[in-house]
Amino acid sequence: MMGFDGMILILLVVFGAVALILRRKSSIPKSAPRGSRESRTAETVVLISAGLVVFLLVSCLPHSGVLLKLGQLRPELARAHVIVACCTAVVMVLAVLLTLSGRSAWATTLMVIVLCGYATMTKQTGFRPGPLTLIAPEGSFEPIVNYTFTTQDGLKGVEVWINGVYFGKTPVKITGREFHKKIPFLSEPPEGYSDKDSHQPKAHWFKVQLPVVETQKRGNGSIWYDTTFKDYFAKAKWQDEWAERGHGGGGGGGDSYRRDYGVTLSTYFSIEKEHRHQRERRLETLVRKAWLSDYQAGPEWFAAAASHGDSGWRKLRRLAERNEDFEKLLDGWARWKYGIDEDIDRDAAERVFERICEQADKDDRYNRNDSAGRAVELIFAKLDVERLVGRYEKILRGRGQGRLESVIHHAIRLWDDKLEADDPGKPNIVEQRIAPAFIVWRSNPEGAIEFGGPEVERYLFRQYQRDQRVSSEDINSSSREYHWGQWLNKWLRLLVRLDGAAGRDFLRQHRERVLEMGDLLVKNMGNHERKPPEFLFSDLDQGQNSMAWQYWPKYSLAVESSSPPWEPEKLKKRWAYLAKMGELATNEMYLDCWRQAWEKDKRQSSNLQLVKALREIPLPQRVYVGKKIIEDLDSIDRNFTVSSLRGHLVTTGDEESLSWWLSKLGPEHYDRVQQKIENNRSADLVIIEALANHDDPDLHGLAVRAIEDNLRPSTYKILQQLLKDPDEQVRREARKVADKLKAIENLPLRELVAPPKLGEIS
Amino acid sequence: MSLLAMLFRQSLPVTLIALPIGCLYVLFAREPLGWQNPWMALFVLVHSIAIAVSLGRFRSRSFAFLYTRGYSRDELYVHKLVGTALLVLAVWLPIALIIWTPIRSIVQDKLFVSPYFPIMAIREAAVPWAWLGGYAILLPLFHYVWIRRAQPTRGGNGVVLLAIGVVLAMAILMTFRWHPQWFRNLLWILSVIVILTNLIAGWLLHRRLEVHG
Q: What pLDDT is recorded for position A611?
């Protein structure tokens, strides 16, 4: 490819040649008068217009020029740009004067030369400065770096020492140059940083990873600016207390001229610890209150939860992953926040939607997993889908509208799912208008595939028909993509992601090529883990004709060369593949994998990694396979692994394993109970029920403690049962827990509001 | 009317060559057409030059003949401009119609089984207007060039270089994909200024052009 300078040179040569030819062919004698006033004026206007367009293209447009962002540049560089622009402008004015005097040829030649020169002088490619270095000092090209040092909780006034030098009190704002002038870089930690026999830092010291812009020189003398992370060693003190431990890291970014990095010091002062604990305790109590009221929460509860911000929402989402009842609370939160009634009408829904759009635009933030996203899920069905589609089409035609686009995309996506569910297989308005718009206006088939539809299917299939090779470097550059170290047919990769009837037809008709691509992806050098591509599992309804079934022997063989090379890891991968096959995978297939590993390496296959691998297997098969493995291991007396395996099967609810485990439990083993529950949260009810109903009344006490630590409505019911336990000791303990829970129930919600941020109170 | 017909007849070879080339290209170009398509830009440029040359051969006998038939200079200038517009329309309109009616889309869809059609038809609909814009800027400029060169004054060659400079500026402009709104507005304003300047200056200078018998 011809470079920028080469292009400019060719332009000048061609222009010069034409000028010379014309000069020689001129038939007007030199004594003739110059052009009239009208011609001079017209030519001046044309020259100014053309010159101005090129000048502005070079100097002011976002990707090419810097004149509109001089404030972001170092003063020396900004000055250099202004000088070059002024000189160019002066020569352009000279050219205009020449035209006015009737010398258009000279004027145009001068204009072309000066604009070519201007473009060459100011062009910037990445971090490498151009010929502007001739008048701007080298250091002026270095991006301006700004650091802002804060603590994680925003604590103000924390004194910070870095590499042994006192640095200031948080929040500290400092430029990169000032920082490096003030703080020496140490390749080795300072004296006293680490213990003699340990690499761990001593008390009060911690490491801060700082993004640093470094000047690099090439052999040809050109320079560029590289960002690397460097270790600095810090200590922090607040009100005569050293931070117990901590760590720090920076992030952020910018462009070629300016970088803004925020550096967060995650310190551990007692006030911070107390603050975090208080916050967590209050949130936890809020959740307990919701449990005790059987997930019935009012505006006061939501207001208290909302005061915890993102952490409150995230906690509820995590709980909702295991317990669907929390979905009701998340819905309630979104309804409370955005004023969404159960029977919201269209106008009100439109207003809420606009509010969410405006907020997303203002904050430059939209996450479909937070309360705004939940609100969109609640109201989208009330929105006018045609209006929504029209609005999104308009956005796709333009240059995008940031976060507003994300909100509308989310609503459209939900509409697409709804229409598909209402009338499966029938092309809907989203598929007909939005999916093609992604291809037409954005050249983004990946975005179109998300919606699917006949237009997208036809587009992809026809693209694929142009070149049906699976993998080759010779595939047209617009039809190939680099994936895990090899060039693949981009259209084939996209076609296997289609989930409609056309996608299934394609998989059926082009099975050989799809399997060939799957094999390439599995055996690829970049895929050390031999992770199978998802599309292999997209036609499981075909039973033994499915791709996953047919590819299984090859996959099993390919895993042999996977990394890491030990047998339990290979077993885990094979079991994970079979698990993805769902009901197609039989118990015997799982067992075959185990026996294959067992045959190869009895020592490795019987270690504790085996228990981890077992978790890959779906629950019904896991018990069967687990018991068979126990039988095999029993024969060679691997007691420790057998115990672990049995222990694992307890959490699956297997009665035999549960009885075995309970028989080994005493009243002093509460830690074992809690550990078991923590290993598999969904098994808590099974374990607590078993403890509460066990013949040995000593274990009932364990159930009481487990209920206190794993409270939810179903376990709370068991507490009611234990309040009537024949054993007095158990009754007493149950009463104590019940009283504690009653106190939580009666606790005013205002006491559970998140404490003010440390940054606000200090 | 007869003058117009004569001017049209004079440029008939240009139209007869340009029309099939343009139509066939638009029908058979496999990739979606955009305003930055270099081949169509070249076509508009060459077609504009050909029209300007066919109507502005001021050293030719036919030119001298026409200018001695008793028409006023203004009458001739206006007729040349109208003739130019008709000549452009005679080529541009069929090309645009091929795009606007589903002809191109059908040919690409059915004959070439193109992946881009019919979905890309909506995007291509605006492209002929960009080509018309190209004609609108270039033709008044090229007419001005021959009128200026027919003046008995120095600097005639300079205007050729100026026209080349304008074409280069347009080519550079085409290589930049995204322009901010303020720059687009400025381009509109400058384009109108350049077009009007060339038309008015051409009209004034045309009154004084020298005809060699």
A: 74
Higher pLDDT, A424 or B193: B193
Q: How far is B81 from chain A (nearest CA, A)?
A: 18
Closest CA to A581 of A530, A527, A629, A542: A542
Who wins on pLDDT, A635 or B48? B48
List the one residue out of B52, B124, B58 whose CA is nearest residue B88.
Answer: B52
Residue A383, CA distances (Å) to A108, A369, B21 in order = 59, 20, 50
Residue by residue, what is the 3-state secondary structure of A484-521? CCEEEEHHHHHHCCCCCHHHHHHHHHCHHHHHHHHHHH
Mutate to test the interface with A, among B30, B190, B193, B206 (most CBs of A within 10 A): B190
Burial environment of residue B105 by CB neighbours within 10 A (0 to 12, 13 to 18, 19 or more): buried
Closest CA relative to residue A593, chosen from A547, A639, A565, A559: A559
Which chain B residues are within 8 Å of A47, Cβ to Cβ? Answer: 162, 165
* Token output for B131: 């080509």
Any residues with CB less than 8 A from the CB of A240 and at least 6 apart, and which? none
Given pLDDT bands bounded at 50, 70 and 90, which one contains residue B213? low
Q: For residue A213, what are the β-bridge partners?
A: A227
- Taking the Cβ of residue B188 and every Cβ of chain A, the question of whether any pair is shorter than 8 Å is answered with no
Q: Where are the alpha helices (DSSP H) in A211-345?
A: 270-292, 299-306, 309-322, 325-338
Q: What are the chain B neighbours of A64 within 8 Å (beta carbons)? A: 176
Query: Encoding tokens for residue A536?
Result: 């292999």
Q: Which of B160, B193, B195, B207 to mutate to test the interface with A (most CBs of A within 10 A)?
A: B160
Q: What secondary structure letter does DSSP report for B151?
A: S
The CA distance from A223 to A219, in Å, is 9
- Residues sharing a CB contact under 8 Å with residue A572, sequence separation 6 or more, in sequence order: A609, A612, A613, A616
As a dihedral over the C-alpha atoms of residue A695, residue A699, residue A705, residue A710, rounded to 10 degrees, the angle is: -60
Residue A127 has a pLDDT of: 47
Taking alpha carbons only, the member of A624, A636, A627, A641 closest to residue A568 is: A641
Helices (H) and strands (E) in chain A, counts: 34, 11
> Residue A578 in contact with residue A553, Cβ under 8 Å?
no
Question: Can you tell me the ipTM of this complex?
Answer: 0.94
Burial of B122 (0-12, 13-18, 19+ CB in 10 A): middle
What is residue A189's predicted lDDT score, i.e. its pLDDT? 78
Q: Which residues of chain A have pLDDT under 70?
A: 1-5, 7-8, 23-28, 63-64, 124-130, 192, 194-203, 220-221, 245-246, 400-401, 603-608, 636-640, 759-762
In chain B, positions 103-162, which contact chain A (CB-CB < 8 Å)? 113-116, 119-120, 122-123, 141, 144, 148, 151-162
Contacts of A422 (CB under 8 A, 6+ apart): none
The residue of chain A nearest to residue B108, with distances taken between CA atoms, is A462
Q: How far is B1 from chain A (nearest CA, A)?
A: 30
3-class state of residue A165 by DSSP: strand
Chain A residues touching B194 at Cβ < 8 A: 45-46, 49-50
CB contact under 8 A, B161 and A33: no
Render pLDDT for A31-66 as a digit per residue (tens, 0 to 9): 777 778 899 999 999 999 999 999 998 888 776 678
Q: How far is B141 from chain A (nearest CA, A)?
A: 9
Cβ A43–B162 below 8 Å, yes or no?
A: yes
Residues of A in contact with B123 (CB under 8 A): 440-441
Which chain B residues contact residue A458 at CB under 8 A? 115
Contacts with A401 from chain B: Cβ below 8 Å: none
User: Measured on CA atoms in the order A546, A547, A550, A551, is the torsion positive or negative?
Assistant: negative
HEC states along A652-669? Answer: CCCHHHHHHHHHCCCCCC
